[in-house]
Amino acid sequence: MSNIIIVGTQWGDEGKGKIVDYLTEHTDVVVRAQGGANAGHTVYNQGQKYVLHLMPSGMLWEGKECVIGNGVVINPLAFIKEIEGLEEKGISVTPEKLRISNAAHVVFPHHRALDVAKEQRRGKGKLGTTGRGIGPAYGDKIERTGLRVNDLIQPERLEAKFRARFEQLTKTLEGIEVEDPEVTLEQYQAAGARLAPHVLNTVEFLHAAMRDGKQLLFEGAQGAYLDIDHGTYPYVTSSNTTAGGACTGSGVSPAKIDEVIGVCKAYTTRVGSGPCVTESEEFSDRLHAMGREFGATTGRKRRCGPLDMVMLRFTTMVNGLTKIAMTNLDGLDGLETVQLCTAYEWKGERLSLPPVDAEDWEDCTPIYEEMPGWSEDISGAKCLADLPANARAYLDRVAEITGTPIGIVSVGPDRQQTMVCDG
Ligand code: GDP
Ligand code: IMO
Ligand code: MG
User: Fold this and answer.
1) What homologous superfamily does CATH list for 263-420?
2) 162 vs 146: CA distance, rounded Å
């Protein structure tokens, strides 16, 4: 029996959806515990491509249960669209398969409008958010003015609380284009009725599942450097994306967790603003020319560079990683040399762990270790022995620097292009 947390170790888009999909076969319940529809998790299943935003990736498997925990922020209209999209592809989303926490917070159109307006006001200093209203929705949660799913499913309570909140926001929303609140109210009441059969106290549900011997798989969204506490603040998202967030966002104690697997791309990518020490135009152009590294949620080009081990050292600590799942190793095929950034140079000092402030990250330059690359196409590899020796040496070096074994290696987007490493 094991309960596993899956987290992103970089700036998101590490391939968490693919790894969660792969591991779902051996679990019972897949749980999202933070973030919202800012996430975009790509999964290929039987030739069909799915991009999941709020829905746990486990939904693509028959006979598995999915939970949206208390730590998530839900835009019910977007979520219903996502459910309908899945149903059109033949995946039925029943109340037995999908359970939603009554304590999760609700994202409203004014959160989205505020998100976009604040970004416009920031001008050049914009954060590059996904524009999904995530920051303002979590802001209300922390400010204690948010509405929760339990309010959403009770029409009178929703009406009273929504009207009161909207009125409080009159000044803040001046000059910002927002949907007519009467239309929103009507749409949200209908959405509440539509989602109500899925809503319950998911803390009780998850604990009952564990008592019944079921295994839980926590599907992290975003990545460690987008964590509100540990990331490149303020260029972060508004939730705790590191392993602890899975526990607070679901009501499952850390004492119940057996493993934390960090998903790590074989190189670095970032979408949105903020520092990225190893970013390289040449490296980015190469991947974009291969048709890779375009954002799953917004379609934006991801900024790319060689793998940053300074970041990975810290991520390993902060998440307590028991294993690393290395994805997109095939993205390095054909490089004569592969680079690993093993330290930063910062104002004449050599750093092995990242600084705390984004400004200081901007002043860091990468110190690279070079290893011989491989010319083979590795996308057909079925086991480690199929990989070129130089690719295996690259994996070994990552494991050595982090002191953490590589448990899974992915060489393509399909479920079959995944290998589990023994030992
Ligand atoms: P997530 O947000 O962490 O779930 O990651 P995304 O889905 O946003 O981005 C990861 C991208 O890499 C997706 O397009 C995946 O289909 C793709 N992907 C995942 N693993 C691999 C891999 O090993 N090789 C290749 N070529 N693509 C991969
Ligand atoms: P997944 O789960 C990559 C980034 C945005 C922006 C910053 C803040 O697919 O890995 P927000 O809308 O959250 O307020 O934006 O965070 N961001 C992501 N980048 N993958 C994600 O999710 C992301 N979710 C948010 O680009 O820089
Ligand atoms: Mg993504």
Assistant:
1) Adenylosuccinate Synthetase, subunit A, domain 3 (3.90.170.10)
2) 9
